[in-house]
User: Which sequence fits this backbone?
């Protein structure tokens, strides 16, 4: 499907989301939190337990690990290929994150629920990234097209 046919705020064909969730292996989560009461922590936990390699990104130098995972200060600090950049930041910060995602050659830019910006979407699309905004991958994993891996320990 041509990228121009995708509405980056609400309407994504099931196959588009399914293809992304099945193809990505490594996810950098910008705005990851070590606070177990934060939504980003729960999303990171579920994605990690589902089998994705999670790379938490948080600029706070006091946060060294989240769930035993090394925390990176910026996307550029990550020393391996990143398939998807998931963004848990204010939507006003999305354009700068999109530019960093392009610099590290990520394949997907994913804005969490409430995180969307048309300019960021266009910038990422023009650089060849797939874009999803205003959606949660944790929620999308449990839609009817996904078969959860029930063999994983919680």
Assistant:
């Amino acid at each position: 499907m041509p990228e121009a046919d995708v509405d980056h705020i609400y309407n994504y064909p099931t196959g588009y989301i399914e293809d992304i969730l099945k193809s990505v292996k490594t996810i950098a989560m910008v705005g990851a939190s070590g606070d177990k009461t934060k939504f980003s922590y729960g999303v990171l936990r579920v994605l990690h337990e589902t089998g994705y390699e999670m790379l938490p990104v948080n600029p706070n130098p006091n946060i060294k690990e989240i769930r035993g995972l090394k925390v990176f200060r910026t996307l550029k600090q990550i020393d391996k290929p990143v398939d998807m950049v998931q963004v848990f930041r204010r939507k006003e910060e999305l354009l700068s994150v999109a530019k960093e995602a392009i610099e590290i050659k990520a394949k997907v830019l994913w804005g969490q629920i409430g995180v969307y910006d048309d300019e960021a979407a266009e910038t990422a699309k023009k650089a060849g990234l797939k874009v999803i905004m205003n959606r949660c991958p944790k929620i999308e994993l449990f839609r009817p097209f996904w078969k959860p891996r029930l063999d994983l320990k919680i």
The radius of gyration is 15 Å. Residues 141 and 148 are 7 Å apart (CA to CA).
